[in-house]
Amino acid sequence: MLIVFREGIVSPGDLPTLKEPKDCAGEPQVRLEEIYLPIKKELDRIENELRNQLLSSEDKFILKVNEYLLGNAGKRLRPSLVLLCAKTNNHLDEKAIPVATALELIHTGSLVHDDVLDEATLRRKRVTINTRWGNESAILTGDYLYFKAFSILSQVKE
């Protein structure tokens, strides 16, 4: 069997072999930092854009909640996947940054809403928005994040 890539033909013997499941039980073979290396500059831009979006409100309560959210950042897997897909398809341009930023805001908003539905008290070892400020504030925070995301997406051409 031969596999055809843009760079040429590869035989199965040229491909890396997968380790047996028992070999993968310990530490991951590849760390996220290694996966993020080709898109580090763009991820930094997304992080800055998230800060700008979340800290742009003039409302002190919204600012307080958003600062709390920023202090509990995740792995940024979703924006990373957007960037890696864009890079793979030679489309890592100015459009990928806002799309990836919006996706992270939508994801975060859905987590805030999910915590209300599940009555969760902790997320990533920190008190949830609904536990700290109540369900109403948490729902509105999630909605606010959706609004910010859709506002960003409305600016993307094509």
Automatic annotation (TrEMBL):
<keyword id="KW-0479">Metal-binding</keyword>
<keyword id="KW-0460">Magnesium</keyword>
<comment type="similarity">
    <text>Belongs to the FPP/GGPP synthase family.</text>
</comment>
<protein>
    <recommendedName>
        <fullName>Polyprenyl synthetase</fullName>
    </recommendedName>
</protein>
<dbReference type="InterPro" id="IPR008949">
    <property type="entry name" value="Isoprenoid_synthase_dom_sf"/>
</dbReference>
<dbReference type="Pfam" id="PF00348">
    <property type="entry name" value="polyprenyl_synt"/>
</dbReference>
<dbReference type="GO" id="GO:0008299">
    <property type="term" value="P:isoprenoid biosynthetic process"/>
</dbReference>
<dbReference type="InterPro" id="IPR000092">
    <property type="entry name" value="Polyprenyl_synt"/>
</dbReference>
<keyword id="KW-0808">Transferase</keyword>
<dbReference type="GO" id="GO:0004659">
    <property type="term" value="F:prenyltransferase activity"/>
</dbReference>
<dbReference type="GO" id="GO:0046872">
    <property type="term" value="F:metal ion binding"/>
</dbReference>
